[in-house]
Amino acid sequence: MAKYSVNQLPVSTLLAQVQSDQIAIPELQRPFVWDSIKVRDLMDSLYRGFPVGYLITWQSVGAHLKGGQTAAHQQILIDGQQRITALRAAVAGLPVINKRYQKKRITIAFNPVTEEFATATPVIRKNPQWISDISEVFRSAAAFRFVGNYVSENPDVDQDTAAENIGKLAEIKNAQIGVIALSDDLDVETVSEIFIRINSKGVPLSSADFAMSKIATYGDRGRNLRKLIDYFSHLSVAPHAFSDIAENDTEFAASPYLQQIAWLKDESEDLYDPSYSDLIRVAGLVGFSRGKASSIVSELSGRDPETRKVDEARIPVAYDNLEKALGEITSKYQFENFIMTIKSAGFISPKLINSKNALNFAYALYLRMRQDPSLSEGERKRITRRWFVMSMLTGRHSGSFESVWEQDMRRISQHGAAEYLQQIEETELTDAFWEARLPADLETTSTNSPYFQSFLASQIASGARGFLSKSITVATMQQHSGDIHHIVPKNYLVKSGLTDRTEYNQVANYAITETAINIAIKDAPPEVYLDRVEQQSETGILDLGEINSQSDLARNLEENALPPTLRDVTAENYFDFLAERRRLMSQAIRRFYRGL
Fold first, then answer.
1. From CA 443, how far away is CA 436, in angstroms rounded?
2. C-alpha dihedral sign at 547, 484, 273, 357
3. CB 297 within 8 A of CB 251
4. Are strands 55-60 and 74-79 parallel, antiparallel or unpaired?
5. Confidence at residue 295, expressed as pLDDT on a 0 to 100 scale
6. SS3 180
7. Are 328 and 368 in contact, with CB atoms under 8 Å apart?
8. How many whole angstroms separate alpha carbon 583 and alpha carbon 578?
9. What is the enclosing helix (H) or strand (E) of 10?
10. HSE of 461 in the Cβ direction (CA atoms, 13 Å)?
11. Are 179 and 7 in contact (CB under 8 A)?
12. Radius of gyration (C-alpha) of the chain in whole angstroms
């Protein structure tokens, strides 16, 4: 069976099919990303008969058209949205959506004498030699009348040239554009592979984009669910856009979904700002126990995961499940409680989280556990915290994470979250992990490594103070101002012959400290700067930080997972120090995990 068909369609037919909803373009409701120069260049290419690339569509079973009909073979446009939107703007004279979700015209002008296209400006509009809006030519019932009017306003131009070029302009509506229509029985992976091979830039097609396009084909409900996802992800980053959306998207504003996410307009939290792709993945886990974004497409297409056959009776049920999942995901109460749960594990800043997948799964897990009446809220939070930190430390949600997600959700459903988490802990977080693997993982220069981030989270959760700070905590410095300090100063090591940055920039040589303390230490080795701290207990004069007792200094070193013998560390025994520090950091993370 052919996987696709290739057709050449005139511009006018394409625009008519978009207008009648035979080709669905959900992105028409998203901000148009092309500037007017690209629109101008597209029109120039069509005028000159240059190729403008293929559009790619994918058949959608069970799509809802305007008027309530169901289309067995509606096409979803999965590549070419910007070109179609540009054609609607320039040829049909229809508005686009700008960054403020307002409808704006992009007007393209044409000079029949020079055959030049340009973005319409006040100067061009005043110049009779220019057709200031080419959409008027395409709307004109009789092109010869348009030519006559133009010639009468421009008696000095060559009438034959002007008439010929205006005729060529009008013929753009008949310009042929290639459309590759992929069949409905193709799975998302195959469609994506075809897309990559066709696309000259080799840009991979996101399965989340497939899902977003598919969601929008289910009539008003589908379009608004798609917008719910899109607007939630947008508002979580830019709350100020709420008024623009409310004012300019009347369809969505009239639905109950806008009020559902209205709380985001006052939200400034940035720990977890899920993209539309993240929301699709979380919805797949919560609503369908599926880890792949493409699985949502299969569910919404009515495809039975067991038989692989399409049953259209499954489609409305799938949309019910999706809507319910999105309702939970976008709930102010659920979302804020999840954020507080993650923060209570010490991950108080987005700088401490380098794995969005770990957050996505943890949120899905938290919401799924709310469906289990045997679990108290406290138990749900405890499991969420431990799962999140476990996944950060083990890299559980990296690599081929989608299949792991599905396996995890399946086993959580079978055994319960608490029991399954315990199984993972007994298998993966063994003594060998804490005593060998984690110290080895801490042998890195990356402050973005999940192991160093987990160490900082452990300090935050325990209320640890910054290195040589008497009262200012690591948490305070994460939220405001603090430095990553070389415990054994970099310049001291370099002068001692350790010039390799992968040696002196080890995370085991890092500690969070106040800027003033970092400056005061400068390039001095531990023996020198610790002597200054110890003298403070004798003289009472604060020279470096505010610690003024030996016992408090010892506690501070312990809070920072530093050996009590730090003052004896030199360039000669520096590598022994790193090994010992990694061991102490691993022990701190282990105590932290057990206390979650």
1. 11
2. negative
3. no
4. antiparallel
5. 81
6. strand
7. no
8. 9
9. strand 4-10
10. 26
11. yes
12. 31
What span, in angstroms and rounded, lies between the C-alpha atoms of 115 and 48? Answer: 10
Tokens representing 269?
């939290």
φ, ψ for residue 158, nearest 5 deg: -70, 115
Q: Which two tokens stand for residue 590?
A: 């282990």
Which residues make beta-bridge pairs with 176?
10
Q: Cβ neighbours of residue 546 under 8 Å, at least 6 residues apart?
A: 469, 470, 471
Q: Which residue has the higher pLDDT, 78 or 123?
A: 123
Give the CA angle between residues 309, 315, 321 to the nearest 5°: 120
Q: In degrees to the nearest 10, what's the CA dihedral of 125, 131, 136, 141?
A: 140
Q: What DSSP state is assigned to residue 241?
A: G
| Strand, helix or coil for residue 239 | helix
**Residue matched to tokens 């700067």:** 529
DSSP string, 90-139: HTS---EE-TTS-EE---EEEETTTTEEEE--HHHHH-TTSBS-THHHHH
The alpha carbon of 52 is separated from its chain's Cα centroid by a whole number of angstroms, namely 29
The 10s digit of each residue's pLDDT in 292-334 is 877 888 888 888 877 778 788 899 999 999 999 999 999 999 9
Distances (CA, A) of 400 to 320, 395, 396: 29, 11, 9
What does residue 183 show for φ and ψ, rounded to 5 degrees?
A: -75, 155
Torsion of CA 418, 420, 423, 429, to 10 degrees: -70
Q: What is the DSSP string of 553-579?
A: HHHHHHHTT--TTGGG--STTHHHHHH
